[in-house]
# Entry
Amino acid sequence: CHAKIIVIRKTWDLKGSAYELPANSTLRFKKSGKIINGELIGNNTKIIAPRKKVFENIKIAGTWNNKTVYSDWLDFSFTKGEDNYFNFKNLMSFCNASTHQTVYIAKGVYWTSTRFQGEALLIPSHTRLVNKGSIHEIPNSYEQCALVRISKSENIEIDGGYYYGDVESHHGTTGEWSHGILCEGSKNVAIKNVVCNDFWGDGIDIIDAYDEDRKPTLICYNIKVDNAICFYNRRQGISIEAVIGCSVTNSNFSYTGTKKYTRPADGIDIEAWNSVGEKLKNITIYNCTMEGNKGKSISIFANGPW
# Structure
C-alpha cells in the first residue's frame, strides 16, 4: 500500500511478519479497527485513533510523529505480576525525540520488569509524561537499573504517577543503584506530583552521564522536583549528585532505610560522587519534610568525593 492515509476499519493480522509503513503516512483507526500479531515499523507516521486498544501483540519500531500518545492504544495487562515491559517500550517508541509530545498513561496498576543497567521507561527529549497509574517493579537481582530513566535528554516533564520498587522482595543483596526515577546528563527537566517508594536504591537520583570517552562529564542543568513523595527507599529518598541549577520543593523524603538499609540512608543527599569538574551549584531545597530516616535528614558534601 502506497497511500499516505491508511484507514484501519477491521482487524489487520500481520501473522508474525514486519510491515513498514509508507513515508509520512497516517494511520487512521475506525471504530472496529486494530492491528495484531507482528511488527509495525513507522516512517514518520502519525496515528489518529480513539483512546482504546488498537494494537495487540505488536512490536513498535521505526519513527513516529504524534503530538499525543495513549497507553490505551496498547494491550497492557493489569494482572498482578504480569510483565508489561515490552508495551512500555512500545509506548515510548511512539515518541519523536525531536518534536514535542504528551504521553498519557491511564489509571490502573501496571507491573513491569526492568533490565540490568537499563530501565522500563526511557523518556525521550521533548516529552511530557502524564501518568495516572501505578507502576510496580517486578522483583529482580540487579545492582543497577531504573524504573524510569531520563538520559542525555532535554525538555522533559513527568507529571504524576505512583512508582514502586522491589525493596522487600529484591533477589540480590548487593548494589545500591536501582532507582525509581533516574535523571542523568539531562537539562530542563521537571518531575512533579510523583510517589517513588520502596526502591533498592534511591526514589529519585539526579546524576551525571558518561561522555564518549567514558568520563562522567555530562552533568544535569535546570532540574525541578516539586511535590514528590519518596518513602522507604533503601539508599536515599533523593540523591543530588551532578547538577547546576536544581530546586526541590514541597516534597517529603522519609523513612529511608527502614525496610532495607544501605548507607547512608538519608532523606536528601547532596553529594558529588566523583571529582571530574564542578558537579554541584545553585541548589534550592524549600518546604520539604524529612523524618524517620535511618541516616540523616539531609547530608551535604563538597565537590569532589568526600
Summary: DSSP finds one helix and 27 strands in the chain.
